[in-house]
Amino acid sequence: MRKAGAILISVLLVLLLPLAIAEDSAKVDKAYTCLEGKVKGKCSSLASVEEQSFALFALAYDSALAGECKSALISNMKNQECWPKSACKVKDTAQAVLALNYIGADTTKPEKWLLSQNKTPSDLIWFLEIDAKDATSCIVKYETNSTQNIISMAADKKLSLSGNGNCLSLTNGNYWLQIAPSCLGRKFRVSCDKDFYTALLYKKSNSDVWHISSNTQAASAGGTTETTVNSLCFKQGGECDYEASLWATLALQQDYSIESFLPYLIALAPDNLKYNPYSFLNILSPSDEFLSNIRNAQNPAGYWDLGSGRYYDTALSLLGMKEISEDSQVLASKDWLQSVQGTDGCWPTVKDTSIILYSAWPKEPSSGIVDISEIDYCEDFGKFCTSQTECSEAEGEILSNYRCKNGLSACCSKQALSKTCSEKSGVNCASDEECSGSLASASDTSRCCIGGVCEKVETPGCERNNYACRANCASDEEVKSGSGNDCTGNDFCCGLKESSPSYWWIWLLIILIILVILAILFRHQLRLWIFRIRDGLGKGKGAPVMQTRPPFPPPFRPGMPRPMMPRQAPIQQQRAAKSKTDEELEQTLRKLKEMSN
Questions:
Q1: In what order do the strands lie in the sheet containing 445-450?
Q2: Interatomic CA distance for residues 423 and 79, integer angstroms
């Protein structure tokens, strides 16, 4: 019986799946229709440059609406170089540049204005590392050849420092060299008498988290490495503005080098989680660590809520996961977005609706826009859309005269390298092992453990019962108590709320059996009732009802011939053969009994 029920459910799912897909598509179409109605003829009166920019992103497929929002943005521009007209801001200018770039408009002047709004952040500390297999002596030159330091490295890797330079000082137990803030931007030339390598490291003030720069070099004995610290942020009001730096760095990725802005964004990300920094960083410099941070911030219900609102935060997170659009967490977030979609098709604001549609269900810009016809798309010419970091690792060249269709990536002459787990300095975990670091995908495995080890752990009873152990259960879940639903630590065993067991198919089968039995027991009455209905339908409304037996014979009088009574047939002959209907009913009952065994 269970097997029959499972088969029935599977058939229903197969039949309903196209309907579900069609329903999702209808919701997306409804959202676009709603947004069109809110923007058409009103783009210039939208609340902010941000709303105008996001609306242009979402509606670029419609040449008329895109043209209207483009005109609205241009009219709100100050001196043809920044937004808004009333007082230029880095964030607004960056968002407008991204939107206009998306439709192929010329943004040369605004991009140059953005680049001019940079400064050196004061809350990063930089270090120079020199390392070699054997004890060695090195010379570090900077400013002029007459200014230098002599570095001696002992067998235990400890350093000693001498010379007339004042840019370097010993730190971290004499293993590294700290660079003075006044020397940032200067070029350090290092030469050693043994094979060696140099690297730049940095960290935020008052933080124990160290980061290594991508500027790592190696040289043979007598060779030279050249290292320069370029650390920048984007300022607003004279001070570094973290959110503005995120948007401005993203806006400049397609045409300018952004390497000097990444250290500031990476080091200060933990202090600025409300701006969803890891979504930006995973676009600018994809890494398993950034992707893991995005994943871990998702609510079990499918949304992100980091401080800027669930709709906006979820949309930005989807942008950061754009390269894995079929990921289960991405699909879960899309389901949640549609579950909270308004009856008119929109989400609460034009800003929310626009960024959600562009992030989750984007449409390519219309060829009807004049600017679009002049775009050379990177993908159409056999080039590769990627980040600047990945392009550099593949030893490719950024092609600024091409555009990527997603409006965010840079065009690279070479394809990004596909790394194995070992190349990512990771360990492949078995299916029954957990990673103490970050679990990522590699070219040879989907369970690559980065920055940790693989440890065998016993699956909690809760998860063996197909539930999930969480710190807090979602709104549509309840705590599953009981001895077999244990979790480790203080987690709760969470499962979907169930009002009653889903045994509907058993009850349906029981009802069918009862109906069949009743039909057999009262088959004669049922047949009589059917005949009456059929005769009534045949003669029409108001037709006399035929008597079911002849009237009583008239009373007998003397002289009248006695009526002949019909001879009674033998009992054996009175038993009529089973009708075909009776046999079919009994066969049906017998089959149902066999299925229940």
A1: 426-428, 445-450, 438-442
A2: 49
In which band, very low, low, confident or very high, does the pLDDT at 415 lie, cut at 50, 70 and 90?
A: confident
Is 264 domain-assigned? no
Torsion angles phi and psi, residue 579, rounded to 5: -70, 160
Under 8 Å between Cβ of 244 and 91: yes
Q: Does one domain contain both 140 and 224?
A: yes
So what's the pLDDT on residue 189? 93
Residue 258 carries which DSSP code? Answer: -
Any idea which residue has 């108001």 for tokens? 542
227: left (phi over 0), alpha (psi -120 to 50) or beta: beta
Q: Would you call 206 helix, strand, or coil by DSSP?
A: coil
| Residue 149 domain-assigned (yes or no) | yes
Taking only Cα atoms into account, the Rg of the chain, rounded to an integer number of angstroms, comes to: 38
CB 69 within 8 A of CB 39: yes
Name the token pair of 457.
Answer: 């752990």
* 51 belongs to a structural domain: no
- ∠ Cα 145 148 150 (to 5°): 135
Asked if residue 223 is part of any domain, the answer here is: yes
DSSP state string for 115-130: HTTEE--SSEEEEEEE
- Beta pairing class for 124-131 and 187-192: unpaired
Q: Name the burial class of residue 30, with classes exposed (0-12), middle (13-18) and buried (19+) by CB atoms within 10 angstroms of its CB.
A: middle
Q: Is 333 left (phi over 0), alpha (psi -120 to 50) or beta?
A: alpha
Tell me, yes or no, whether 148 and 223 share the same domain: yes
Strand pairing report for 187-192 and 136-142: antiparallel
Query: Residue 166: what pLDDT?
Result: 87
Return the SS3 of 10.
helix
Q: What is the pLDDT of residue 578?
A: 52
Q: How far apart are CA 374 and CA 483, in angstroms?
A: 67
In this structure, the strands spanning 233-236 and 224-228 are unpaired
Query: Is residue 395 domain-shared with residue 479, that is, in the same domain?
Result: no
Residues 132, 212 within the same domain: yes
Pair 60, 366: CB distance under 8 Å: yes
Quick one: which of 277, 216, 218 has its CA closest to 244? 277
- d(Cα 576, Cα 568) in Å, to the nearest integer? 14
Mind listing the pLDDT tens digit for each residue in 146-165?
A: 788 999 999 999 999 998 88
For 491, the domain range is 462-498
Exposure pattern of 555-575 as b/e (b: 16+ CB <10 Å)?
A: eeeeeeeeeeeeeeeeeeeee
Stronger pLDDT, 247 or 568, i.e. the higher one = 247
Q: Is the pLDDT of residue 177 over 90?
A: yes
Domain count, the chain: 3
- My answer on whether 485 and 391 are in the same domain is no
Q: Does 400 lie in the same domain as 473?
A: no
What's the start-to-end Cα distance of the chain, in Å?
9
Which residues sit opposite 161 in a β-bridge?
Answer: 151
Give the domain-ending residue among 202, 230, 258. Answer: 230
Q: Is the pLDDT of residue 542 over 60?
A: no
Last residue in a domain, options 213, 230, 247: 230
Quickly count helices (H) and strands (E) in the chain. 18, 23
Q: Amino acid letter at 91? A: K
